[in-house]
Amino acid sequence: MSMDMVLSFWQWISTRKNSDPVKRVFLGASGIFGAVPGLTIIGWGLGSPPGYLLLFGGTIEVFGTLTVLLLWVNRKRLKRLTAKQTTGTVLVLIALSLCLVVVYLQLTGLCIANHPIHGSVYYPLWKSGHLAEMVDRAGGRYAAVERYGSYPVAKAIQEAPGYPFTMVVTTIVMLLTYQGIFTSLAIAFGVLGIRSEERAQSLPADAIHEAPSKRSHNVASTH
Predict the structure, then answer these.
(1) Residue 89 — φ and ψ, nearest 5°?
(2) pLDDT at 104
(3) What is the pLDDT of residue 1?
(4) Is 43:54 a contact under the CB 8 Å cutoff?
(5) Which of 8, 22, 118, 189 could form a disulfide with 150 if both were Cys (CB 3.0 to 4.6 A apart)?
(6) Using CA atoms, how far apart are residues 45 and 54, in angstroms rounded to an integer?
(7) What is the pLDDT of residues 87-117, one digit of tens each?
């Protein structure tokens, strides 16, 4: 279902009149940031917590496709944006995406401990109970995995007060942050592509062909 909708979006891009390479690049980038990250996570698990590959990949794929479709449905409204509004919107979205990248890197560094021997352990945002004692005694989350191994730490996580609520909240925060990175970029490129299409359509075709002829005429008259 989602792949059919994505193909429809690509077909809309390829069949627009008065299209130009810049518009195609922006709309193509919007489609890529909307649909490809989810497939990449499903295939390789890029950036997803251990054990949550399909959840992250599937959710990001669905919401990415939904973002692309919302841009497509609201393209007429987006065409009415002024150049100043477009620039401001795109800059805010790019800044938001960069901020979310920093936040997600902090979250992964806090919640995911990748050990070369003991494997990966997915921690909750906050620690309590015996888990807190193990982490404090070892001197950190990574150090706890190195000292005790992945199984004792994972068992302590499951036995900690508030489990599994703590892991649900952690996963939701990480998922929304990760999704926001690509959604912001998809919207930014989509807005740029739709606005560039409006600019190309508002410029008469005769004016486009008339400008080179005038330049050539002026060059000829100088000689």
Answers:
(1) -65, -45
(2) 95
(3) 41
(4) no
(5) 118
(6) 8
(7) 999 999 999 999 999 999 999 999 999 999 9
Rounded Cα–Cα distance for residues 200 and 33 (Å): 24
User: Beta-strand (E) ranges in 21-148?
Assistant: 112-115, 119-122
Q: What percent of the chain has pLDDT over 90?
A: 43
Q: Give per-residue burial for 122-156: e unless 16+ CB within 10 Å, then b.
A: bbbeebeeebeebbeebeebbebbbbbbbebbbeb
Measure the CA–CA gap between 194 and 161, rounded to whole angstroms: 50
Per-residue pLDDT of 41-65, as tens digits, reads: 555 556 788 888 888 888 887 887 7
Residue type, 134: M
Looking at the whole model, is its pTM more than 0.85? no
Residue 11 corresponds to which tokens in the numbers above?
């077909």
Give burial (CB, 10 Å; 0-12/13-18/19+) of 190. buried
> Measured between alpha carbons, how far is 52 from 111 in angstroms, rounded to an integer?
13
